[in-house]
Amino acid sequence: MINHKQVEIVEVHAGNWYECCQLEVDESQKGHIESNAISIAQSKFEPTLKPFAILFDGKIVGFLMFNSALEELDGYWIYRIMVDKNYQNRGIGKRASQLMIQEMQKLPAAKRMVVGYHPANKEAHQLYAGLGFIDRGDRFGKEMAVVLEI
């Protein structure tokens, strides 16, 4: 298991964006998530989206992004979270998610966080259930949305 001090999140910037774009999920997960390059580009056109690199022992091993503006279900939405295929199943994604939630709690009137994912994405389901997100039956197209009240 990892030491919590080994995982940190830092905002994506000119010095680390390209490395974030080089990260890959496992082949079986590719249909469940947009590429980091698309996510970073999206953040440049939607400035309320906040992209972060996930570091493990100082090395970029993942990517996450959330919206700093309230959206559907009166919550702040998590848009992406991924850990490179070579670093999965070590608890890095869970710890990075905890750090992201701490960051999101600083947002104005933060009382609810929401994330959507395809019901077949078992890894996402395990991660978010383990963090306390609840399925209240909310659906958006093919995705389910789970909610964390804070």
Features:
150 residues, alpha+beta, seven-stranded mixed β-sheet, 4 helices, 7 strands
Provide an overview of this structure.
With 150 residues, the protein is α+β, with helices and mostly antiparallel strands. Helix content is 25%, strand content 33%. The chain has helices spanning 17-21, 36-45, 92-104, 122-130, and strands at residues 7-11, 49-56, 59-67, 76-83, 112-117, 134-140, 143-149. Strand 4 (76-83), helix 3 (92-104) and strand 5 (112-117) form a beta-alpha-beta unit. The model has no long low-confidence stretch (mean pLDDT 93).
Q: What does the secondary structure layout of this molecule look like, with pairings?
A:
Blueprint: E1 7-11, H1 17-21, H2 36-45, E2 49-56, E3 59-67, E4 76-83, H3 92-104, E5 112-117, H4 122-130, E6 134-140, E7 143-149
Parallel strand pairs: 4-5
Antiparallel strand pairs: 1-2, 2-3, 3-4, 5-7, 6-7
What share of residues is helical? 10-25%
Radius of gyration: 14 Å
Q: How many helices? A: 4
What profile does the largest beta sheet have? Answer: 7 strands, mixed
Low-confidence stretches: none
Q: Summarize model confidence as the mean pLDDT.
A: 93
Going across the major beta sheet, what is the strand order? 1-2-3-4-5-7-6
